[in-house]
Amino acid sequence: MRTSMKSLLLGFTGAMALPALAQETPPEPPEFSADDIATPDREALAEAYAATTGAPKSKAIEQLRLQEQAVSWVNDLVSSSVGETIVDVEIRHAPGFKVVVFYENGFEQQNATRGAPVELRRYLIFRSAKKDKNSVQTERRQIAQALRTARIPFGLGYEPESERFIVTIPDGFDEQLVRNALPSAVAANVEIKTGATSVDSATLYGGWFYEKSNSGTHCTAGWPIRDSAGREAILTAGHCRTPSNTMNFYYQNAVLSEVSAYADSNNGWQTLDYAMYRLGTHATAPYINIENGRTVEGEYVSVPGYATNYYPIDYPKEPVRGQFICKMGVNTGLTCGRITELNYTDSEYSNLVRMSESAQRYIGLRGDSGGPVFAFRTSDNAAVHPIGLAVKASVIETYRGTEKISERPCRNTSTVGANNTTCHVLFMRLSTIRGYSPYTINTISGFRAP
Q1: What is the pLDDT, as a whole number, of residue 298?
Q2: How high does pLDDT run on average in the chain?
Q3: Is CATH 2.60.40.3360 the right assignment for the domain spanning 2-24+285-448?
Q4: What is the pLDDT, as a whole number, of residue 201?
Q5: How far apart (Å, rounded) are the C-alpha atoms in residues 382 and 379?
Q6: Across the chain, which distance is largest between two alpha carbons, in Å?
Q7: pLDDT in tens, 321-332
Q8: Which CATH number, 3.30.300, 1.10.12, 1.10.287, 3.40.50, labels domain 133-194?
């Protein structure tokens, strides 16, 4: 028997390849909502708020503080017995700050008001809702399921004031197809609008998993970008591309098949491994989904101190030796380590960046390919700086004579990252990819070149 170490293409996972290594289908990502965005620093948030609402910065800071109080109060309210009678809550910022509570029979307004911070009370508005909460949730599920079954790209919202559901479809999409797909019992309460689709049902995010064609194998969506032709796209690993060019997002029933740039080769001094999938009628946003916590080979893998959230994308950075960085992959989730080599080269790969010294038992696994590699913003850990694109990880091969009998992901043995120097993830720096195929990254300050 002999054991050897080699690098493993991260993109092959599922029942078709070594099921002991990974789940057949990764967990669905959480639906996007404003409450799931990591909180940025107050100064930047106030500036963005002021620019959006037209309010002076001093007023923006005050209203953001009121918003925090309102969110805390609403969370306490919803988790109490009063929560059963709350249909919806809206925090409105313009033309003036308001917190509007829509309630059903049995709501105790006086008790709810007494529980609110004193300075928040004058902004509270209470309105009776004609539909109870269970009816709204049931109808929303019925509409979403019907449209997903019909493979219609859509956004779905609910306006408690008008008590109507709003379905948003791309410009040019046949509205009658949407009407025909809607359940007859709720169709009269649905308004259809064209234009940009809303984030809760039609947007695709970096960090999500997707199926490669109908192969049963998965990869990870990387960074939201705009390619050299100015079209929005998703950057992922080149070796995840299939002959049919299909990037199938189960969660949104989105199928991307147009590749504007692609490479999976080694020219002798540089390994190239990337693909840009154009979005078509779908949308993307300057956020990536980071999920902290996966079970790998029976062990729970997580990074202390970081929450599962949608993280805003800040400006790109170049990798620096010794830098603490992380990656998101659908099978190992969030894992972190340090950059130990900037120009890693062996018999198979050339001039890649090596991330090692991870305190997590497993740093990478099949299915993590294409995932974003980043540094958390050091001022508050509430945003990420794009750095690279994950393409390879180390794996243990075990042989009996000349016959390979098993293949396992490399397992770190110490809880101290500095002691774990063998297991690694290799990634392409984003600036290297741009040198071959120009593009810009969707960030919170606009599209920027890496």
Answers
A1: 87
A2: 80
A3: no
A4: 41
A5: 8
A6: 78
A7: 888 999 999 999
A8: 3.30.300
